[in-house]
Write a structure and sequence with these properties.
With 331 residues, the chain is an alpha/beta fold. It has two domains: 118 residues, Nucleotidyltransferase, domain 5; 174 residues, 2-Layer Sandwich (Nucleotidyltransferase, domain 5). Helix content is 44%, strand content 18%. A hairpin with a 5-residue loop joins β7 and β8. α6 crosses α7 and α11 packs parallel to α12. It is globular and about 65 Å long.
C-alpha cells in the first residue's frame, strides 16, 4: 500500500527520480534507523532514534512521530543536503503497517511510500533483493520468504505466549524451566541454575521465576539473559547444549515450512539469518547443517541489514534498479 501525499509530478517521473532522494526506515522495539540514498544507489546519510513499535494511544503516537522524524532528520543532517522531500520511501515497521500511514504523512515529506513489516525489509537486505528466505531470531522469531514470482510466505512470529520458538526469550524460558526442574529434583543438574541466580541476584529458582513475572523484568530484559545459555553450552553443559540445539531445530523447521510453500522440490533456495540469537556460533552452525540437509537450500550470512533492505525497497517502488553502495556496516 502506498501513501497519497500531494505531488506536483508523478512519483516515477524521470526528472523527479534523477535528482531525488530515497529513504529506508527500519522501525522496531528497540530503535528506529533511517538511511538516505541518492538516485545512483549510494547511501549518503544514516540516522537513529528511539523505538516506534506502538502507535495506538496518544503517547504512543507521539513517540512514533518522534522516532520516525528524529531518525530521518538525523540522516538528513549527516547527508548535509538542503532537500527535505523524498521521491520514494519504504518503512519496515515492527507490528506491520496498520494505522501508521497517516502518521507517516504527517512526519515525512515523501512523494510515494510503502509501509511493510520488518521481516520484508530484513529479507530484501539479506539477499540483496533476490528471492530467498530469512530466519529472524532476536527477542522473538519468524521466518519469511519470497520467490521469483513475488509470492511470499511466513512461519512463526506468533509472540512469546504462543510461539517465538528458537528466540532469545524462548532460550531463557527453557533455561528457567531447567533450573526449576533441577531444584524440584525431577530434572538433571545444570550450570544454568547458578548462572541465572548469580546474574539476577535471585535466592533460588522460585525467586527467579517470580522476578521474571514482575514489571522489573519486561520481555526484552528476560531475553537478554540468552547469552548465558550460549556461554554455559560452550562450557559443555549438556542441558544448555540441548536447549541451543532444539532452538536451531525450531528455526530450521520454520525455514522448511516457508520453503515448502514457495519453492519447488530441487529448486535452489537462498537462506539467510539475522538477530541476536544467531550470534551463537554453536546454534548458527547447527541451523546451517539442518537447513542444508535439504540439498537445494544454501545458507549464507546476510549481505545487508534491514535498513538497507528498506532503502532497496524504496528504489524498487520508484522503478529503479541499482546496486547499493556505501551502506554502513550492520544497517
Amino acid at each position: 500500500m502506498t501513501g497519497n501525499a500531494p505531488n506536483p509530478q508523478p512519483p516515477n517521473d524521470p526528472a523527479t527520480v534523477e535528482r531525488g532522494l530515497f529513504l529506508g526506515v527500519d522501525g522496531g522495539q528497540s530503535s528506529t534507523v533511517a538511511l538516505i540514498g541518492d538516485a545512483s544507489g549510494r547511501v549518503i546519510g544514516a540516522g537513529q532514534a528511539g523505538p516506534c513499535n506502538h502507535a495506538g494511544a496518544a503517547e504512543g503516537r507521539e513517540k512514533f512521530i518522534q522516532a520516525i522524524g528524529g531518525s530521518v532528520q538525523a540522516a538528513l543532517d549527516q547527508a548535509g543536503v538542503a532537500e527535505r522531500r523524498f521521491s520514494a520511501a519504504c518503512f519496515g515497521l515492527s507490528g506491520g503497517p496498520a494505522g501508521k500511514h497517516a502518521l507517516i504523512r504527517e512526519t515525512v515529506d515523501v512523494a510515494n511510500f510503502t509501509v511493510t513489516t520488518d521481516a520484508v525489509i530484513a529479507l530484501t537486505g539479506a539477499t540483496g533483493g533476490k528471492p530467498g528466505i530469512i530466519a529472524i531470531s532476536g527477542t522473538g522469531s519468524i521466518a519469511f520468504g519470497r520467490n521469483a514470482e513475488g509470492r511470499t510466505a511466513r512461519a512463526g512470529g506468533w509472540g512469546y505466549v504462543y510461539g517465538d520458538e528458537g528466540s532469545a526469550f524462548d532460550l531463557v524460558r527453557q533455561a528457567v524451566r531447567a533450573a526449576l526442574r533441577q531444584e524440584e529434583r525431577w530434572g538433571p543438574s545444570t550450570a544454568l541454575r547458578e548462572a541465572l541466580l548469580e546474574a539476577t541476584g535471585a535466592h533460588d529458582a522460585n525467586d527467579l521465576l517470580h522476578r521474571f513475572y514482575s514489571a522489573d523484568y519486561p520481555r526484552a530484559r528476560v531475553a537478554s539473559f540468552a547469552t548465558l545459555v550460549e556461554k554455559i553450552a560452550v562450557e559443555g553443559d549438556p542441558v544448555a547444549r540441548d536447549i541451543l540445539n532444539r532452538a536451531a531445530q525450531a528455526l530450521a523447521a520454520f525455514v522448511a515450512a516457508v520453503r515448502g510453500q514457495l519453492f519447488h522440490c530441487g529448486e535452489t533456495a537462498h537462506v539467510s539469518y539475522i538477530g541476536g540469537v544467531f550470534q551463537s556460533a554453536m546454534l548458527r552452525e547447527r541451523f546451517r547443517m539442518l537447513v542444508e540437509l535439504e540439498g537445494s537450500s544454501h545458507v549464507a550470512a546476510p549481505l545487508h541489514g534491514p535498513t538497507a533492505g528498506a532503502l532497496m525497497e524504496a528504489y524498487r517502488l520508484a522503478g529503479l534498479t541499482c546496486e547499493l553502495r556505501d551502506a554502513p556496516q550492520g544497517f
